[in-house]
């Protein structure tokens, strides 16, 4: 699907633009583009039928200048070390942009989680976590869910780490179940943040929710919530896609009905309230807002020319390649970058970590209000920087974040 060699190339291209603007020297460039620590582990898995499989897992800590490393864990057959490196780098910029006291990390296991039973997933997760124990912990590196993982995965990780420490350590991971030290509002936080930012971006281009149409790619933890909150805001969602199907209804999809259908069937495929279309037609649907909320590298030099929209709000990490960015800019389409648009998840992960470390829990309203305040502030800061310096929102956001990370690095002392 991607027309570029790899998301790591995209991440490095974006970093290079920020560094050029900031005028950093080659040493700083190398420091910022290179992960501080990378671990690759082999995870033997005994399947329920007694056979043995081996899965490869990674954890990459891209940067820790501003605080402990932070970022999700991905389970997918497509995971590879360079992808994890790119995702870890984007986490560093996201945390810095939102002024969270964290560096950036990401983890991944090359596995199809849908092909495993719950017991197999638990064994795999516990073994992967055991391998990471020297690396992770509330003051070192705090994992969270990403594609293919969820609250249950985080509960197993927290338990495995806690058993090894001899006591419960709730701040080990975030995105845990609420009954086990999770935060109110974390599950929906990424999607909520995307929609807060979408509404800000819509206002900036003069779109009113009741006159706005959208399409959403991905109907998992992020895409599904984004579709729901857009629908609740009055935006008409014309099409959604998961791996199995892309569906379209130009009158607007009834999102609550689609959610009920997906709860029963596990996919949008066959939903009676919309028509199936070829996946390749998704981005060609004329609409106001495109929300890619699945995987990297889907908006490319092939797909960008067909997009007929005013805004792209990146729910996924790295969905737009640098070449596509240039095409979209020429077409006058405003791209709200991932490190800004999908930061709601890590913001509420930060709130969860703070609550867990203090054993003092906030209400869902408190969480959502503080989330909104941080998302709105970041939107104002990035749009102002973009205007003041004539940069795209992506370059503005990356530049602001890279500058903060470099400043923290320098403040810690140049001659350690
Ligand atoms: N979870 C979080 O808190 C955060 C996630 N993100 C990013 O958001 C994106 C989605 O993550 P998340 O929702 O957590 O992951 P999930 O695993 O919960 O969901 C992924 C969704 O994407 C769909 N999908 C995968 N490949 C394709 C494809 N080629 N075409 C259409 N749909 C596809 C899946 O379909 P199916 O259901 O059929 O498998 C699923 O609906 C990722 O880029 C992730 O890094 C960013 C910030 C925070
Ligand atoms: O909640 C977190 O710590 C990280 C979420 C994540 O992986 C992301 O924002 O891409």
Automatic annotation (TrEMBL):
<dbReference type="InterPro" id="IPR006096">
    <property type="entry name" value="Glu/Leu/Phe/Val/Trp_DH_C"/>
</dbReference>
<dbReference type="GO" id="GO:0000166">
    <property type="term" value="F:nucleotide binding"/>
</dbReference>
<keyword id="KW-0560">Oxidoreductase</keyword>
<dbReference type="InterPro" id="IPR006095">
    <property type="entry name" value="Glu/Leu/Phe/Val/Trp_DH"/>
</dbReference>
<dbReference type="InterPro" id="IPR036291">
    <property type="entry name" value="NAD(P)-bd_dom_sf"/>
</dbReference>
<dbReference type="GO" id="GO:0004352">
    <property type="term" value="F:glutamate dehydrogenase (NAD+) activity"/>
</dbReference>
<feature type="site" description="Important for catalysis">
    <location>
        <position position="146"/>
    </location>
</feature>
<keyword id="KW-0547">Nucleotide-binding</keyword>
<keyword id="KW-0520">NAD</keyword>
<dbReference type="InterPro" id="IPR033922">
    <property type="entry name" value="NAD_bind_Glu_DH"/>
</dbReference>
<feature type="binding site">
    <location>
        <position position="94"/>
    </location>
    <ligand>
        <name>substrate</name>
    </ligand>
</feature>
<feature type="domain" description="Glutamate/phenylalanine/leucine/valine/L-tryptophan dehydrogenase C-terminal">
    <location>
        <begin position="183"/>
        <end position="413"/>
    </location>
</feature>
<dbReference type="Pfam" id="PF02812">
    <property type="entry name" value="ELFV_dehydrog_N"/>
</dbReference>
<comment type="similarity">
    <text>Belongs to the Glu/Leu/Phe/Val dehydrogenases family.</text>
</comment>
<feature type="binding site">
    <location>
        <position position="70"/>
    </location>
    <ligand>
        <name>substrate</name>
    </ligand>
</feature>
<dbReference type="InterPro" id="IPR014362">
    <property type="entry name" value="Glu_DH"/>
</dbReference>
<feature type="binding site">
    <location>
        <position position="349"/>
    </location>
    <ligand>
        <name>substrate</name>
    </ligand>
</feature>
<dbReference type="InterPro" id="IPR033524">
    <property type="entry name" value="Glu/Leu/Phe/Val_DH_AS"/>
</dbReference>
<dbReference type="GO" id="GO:0006538">
    <property type="term" value="P:L-glutamate catabolic process"/>
</dbReference>
<dbReference type="InterPro" id="IPR046346">
    <property type="entry name" value="Aminoacid_DH-like_N_sf"/>
</dbReference>
<feature type="active site" description="Proton donor">
    <location>
        <position position="106"/>
    </location>
</feature>
<feature type="binding site">
    <location>
        <position position="190"/>
    </location>
    <ligand>
        <name>NAD(+)</name>
    </ligand>
</feature>
<dbReference type="Pfam" id="PF00208">
    <property type="entry name" value="ELFV_dehydrog"/>
</dbReference>
<dbReference type="InterPro" id="IPR006097">
    <property type="entry name" value="Glu/Leu/Phe/Val/Trp_DH_dimer"/>
</dbReference>
<protein>
    <recommendedName>
        <fullName>Glutamate dehydrogenase</fullName>
    </recommendedName>
</protein>
